[in-house]
Write a sequence for this structure.
């Protein structure tokens, strides 16, 4: 009786020991996978450098066969690339000299814009008030449309009683001021601030 009882206990303990020595189950392996996203286009910027009416020879850069970028060529390139793009347009007179009708790719006639397009001219227009309504609106100055202008302020910066305009080029830190003569702004560089500093709370006023 004692022998049988000891033998059963020994068999039970041996079985538990064998179970405890079984290898632990492996954790599930992490398997990275690639997920394809929708196509995304980086905005393109075209800098017009001629007033001539030419077509694009390169639809990626907007250059015509002379290497210039006209307004028409820039619009054609923006249409070709798709997405959201912008054109920097300097001051000047732009005439559409290529005749054509029934064409929708801006190659002839008018300019067909097919996507989101912003045209930046950098022009300052002033409306002279007659006391209750603006009596005339004219072009007073043109600043570079390729520059990001910040901290633009209005004030009398030379003490002649006329309102002038000033602004900072974010890229270079240069301050440019347009002094009014009553009919236009004459713009010149006045100062340069460090681009390594984040300037805040910029105000114009008589400080001396």
């Amino acid at each position: 009786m004692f022998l049988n009882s000891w033998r059963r206990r020994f068999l039970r303990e041996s079985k538990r020991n064998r179970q405890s020595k079984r290898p632990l189950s492996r954790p599930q392996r992490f398997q990275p996978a690639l997920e394809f996203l929708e196509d995304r286009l980086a905005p393109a910027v075209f800098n017009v450098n001629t007033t001539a009416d030419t077509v694009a020879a390169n639809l990626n850069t907007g250059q015509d066969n002379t290497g210039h970028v006209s307004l028409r060529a820039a619009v054609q390139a923006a249409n070709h690339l798709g997405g959201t793009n912008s054109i920097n347009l300097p001051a000047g007179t732009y005439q559409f000299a290529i005749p054509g009708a029934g064409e929708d790719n801006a190659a002839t006639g008018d300019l067909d814009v097919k996507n989101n397009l912003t045209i930046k001219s950098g022009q300052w227009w002033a409306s002279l008030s007659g006391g209750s309504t603006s009596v005339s609106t004219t072009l007073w100055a043109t600043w570079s449309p390729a520059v990001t202008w910040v901290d633009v302020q209005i004030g009398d910066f030379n003490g002649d009683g006329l309102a002038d305009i000033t602004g900072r080029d974010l890229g270079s830190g240069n301050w440019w001021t347009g002094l009014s003569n009553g009919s236009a702004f004459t713009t010149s560089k006045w100062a340069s601030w460090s681009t390594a500093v984040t300037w805040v709370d910029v105000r114009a006023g008589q400080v001396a």
Observations:
- Residues 123-192 form one domain.
- The CA atoms of residues 151 and 201 lie 9 Å apart.
